[in-house]
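Bit of a strange request maybe. I'm writing a small parser for structure token strings and I need a real example to test against, not something I typed by hand. Could someone generate the tokens for this chain?
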Amino acid sequence: TQELYLKISTKNPSRFAACGRHCPVEMVSWVEALHFANALSRRDQLTECYQFSDEMVLLKGGIACSGWRLPTEEEWGWLARGGEQHIYAGSEKADEVGWFWENGSVQTHVGGKKKPNGFGLYDMHGNLWEWTSDWHGCNYPEDNEWCESDERRVSRGGSWSSRIDNHKASNR
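Reply from user aminoacidic:
Good idea to test on real output. This should exercise your parser:
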């Protein structure tokens, strides 16, 4: 939420800041999301999962890291499906679970106002694209180093500005 992001990072980069403290934070790069995950880990006295150098990011401990980290694309898909077989996260009808171009009033919305999925997770579709730790066409190096570019990062879930076709659990 904008409230949590502001509390942890002391800034709110959101274009839709007027949406309010319970709205999602947008306008955050992939690298900024990793820094935020590390800050959450420090707050919760967990291991920081990311180590930064001039050109690379290292995922310390891989996906077994005990701190906050972005999900892999596979993890995101599993979480979005919520143990169910719906087209969208929690429903066959996109409007029940997410905000998108056709119903989003061209802005973000307060989180948790739509139907949750089978795991009780809200907003897996719509409102904002969500970063994953994966990138298109990536063959991961054995040492888990990734370049810092957002250019080919995989995001999932669709947003208020994307058409309903982009919101299926299988879409990337």
